[in-house]
Structures are given as structure tokens and as C-alpha cells.
Amino acid sequence: MASWVAVELLRTGLVDGVAHVTPQPPLFAYQISRNVEDVRAGAKSRYHPVTLWPILEEIRARPGRYAVVGVPCFIKAVHLLRRRDPLLHARIVFTLGLFCGHMKSAHFGESLAWQIGVRPGELAGIDYRVKDPRRPANWYRVRATDAAGATHEKDWMHLAGGDWGAGFFQHPACDVCDDVVAETADMSFGDAWVEPYASDGRGTNVVVIRSPVLLDLVGQARAQGRLRLDDVDADFVARTQAAGLRHRREGLAYRLALRRRHGIVPRKRVTPSTDLALRRKLIYRARRRIARDSARVYLLARSLDALWLYLFWAQAAYTIYEALAYGRGRLGALLDRLTPRP
After folding, report:
1. Which of 43, 243, 270, 333 has its CA 20 to 30 A from that of 149?
2. For the chain, where are the E strands, in sequence order?
3. Region class of 203: left (phi > 0), else alpha (psi between -120 and 50), else beta
4. Is this structure's pTM higher than 0.90?
5. Where along the chain do its domains lie?
6. pLDDT digits (tens, 9 = 90+) for 218-247
């Protein structure tokens, strides 16, 4: 849907360019696409850190109307810049947001690639979500391309760090973020992680429209039979992102309480609180530890050329997290008896 809207904005002349993330050396970067073909060629999920700065400079340098696609923190940053910069305010006319669980460091993709046979320094390309209509959409599969052009692929579930919710390589700033659905964007797009949509290998989007112009754009396409969308309520949208919202509400309140002991606590929509079940506290602590230590252990393993070191640590850390979050294994059974899941 994000690509469809971007194409439609260009096709109807509402914008002259769309800023979005595309494959570029060394792996990904923002570019401004000024035709439909380039937008479509750049369509894909990119779980990779990038910077907005080059395209902001291009927008300042070249007159026109632009749409910017980004995760929640990027879209909010764009609005804050627009507030201070009259030129950006005039030229960035639409923001298209992507639902977000958290941001990963570049080492996340590199670690997946190393596990399937592409060594650090040899990674020439990566597709984080290889699409296959015959498989459930939530069975993520990664494909990495090495410097010689050979491809290697494997399901995330069989790789260390493949459980997104465990927090491997999470950016530290994400610990205090409370925006899952890109609330400041004119239109937001996410995966419909509820059945029967989650099992549909073609993929299904859930969208939130906040712009009258975009609502009219979508409405016309629906009336013409060019889009198939079902109206849903806010509760449905929340259910599709239940885990992320829990982490950014209940979990955020607990993380803020932990930060209060050690330093500055940002003001968020939830207040610091430790009033939750012990099992939930342990889960949030495990995620924080994994996010922090995954980068450290991986960099050590990388410097020693010892993938086994990272895998050994990751398996041990994930076994504990898996037992806490899902009650799996003997440790999980023991924890279920000692600290029942709420």
C-alpha cells in the first residue's frame, strides 16, 4: 500500500518526488524517485539504518513538492524540521509512515548474512523479507548476496537473532519510544498481524489515513475498483500491533522506572511504573540485556573472526528469553510454575 500511494501521488501530480529507501551501495540509502518505475523498483522492507540528511539537502536544492516515507521517529523528525525550516515546510507536502517495532543496527543484517555463509565485508546485498505466496507472511526469510554474486537464504526462525521481539541489535533510543503506528504521518502502513491475514503469503496491510487529501485519493480508487480495502476500527488496528503496543506502553512504563534510578527520564504518555507481574518485568529486562549485549558480543566475535562465539552467547540469551516469553523448554516449564504468565 505504501508503494501504491507513493505511485498514485506521482501519477496524479500531487508530488514531484518521493523520498524512500532503496538498495544503494553499500546496502541501502534514501533516494528521491521522480517517476513511477523508480518508486516500484524500490518497493521492499528495509530493516536497516539510514540517514535522511542527503535527501533533505536535495529537497532544499531542487524546487518541487515531495512525499517522505519513513519510520515513526523519522517522520516526527521531518515535522520538527518543517516547523523550523520554511523551505522544507513548503516542499514536503506528504509524510507516509511505516509501523515500527524498533530499529536495528547494521550489524543485524550482517549477522544474519554471516550465519548463512556471507562473511562480514563480503555482503553485497540483502533482502530481509523474501516473498513467497505459498508460505505464511510472518515466516520471514532472508536472502544475502555475496561479493561474487552468489545468493544464500534461510528462514529467520532458524537464525540467531531471528525473533524480532527479543530485541537483538535494537537501537538504544527505541527503549523510550512510544510511537508504533507513525502517529504524526499523513498515512501509516503496517502488517496485519492477525488471522486470517497473517497466514496469507501475499501479505496484507493495515492502514491509517489522517489526511483528507489521501482519504479522497484512496476513496476514489476504491470506488473505481482499483483498491480492495475493508473498513476496520481502531481496536482492530491495535490488535494487529498488540505486542508492539504492549512493549511501548506497559514495557515503556517499566523501562522509565528503571531509568529513573540512573539518570534522565524523558516525559512520555505513560508514567514510570513497576506495577506489573514479575514475569513481565523479567521479559523486559531480558530484552534490554539482549539489545545491549548483542552488539558488544557480535563486535567481539567479528574482530576475532569467531562466529561461534556470537552464536554461543545468542543461543544462551535466547533460551532464557524464550522460556520467559513463551514458556518453552524445561526452563519455561519451571518458570510457569514459579511465575505464571499473566
Report:
1. 43
2. 17-23, 28-33, 66-70, 92-98, 123-127, 141-146, 151-155, 187-191, 205-209
3. left
4. yes
5. 2-102+173-239, 106-166, 249-338
6. 999 999 999 999 999 999 999 999 999 999
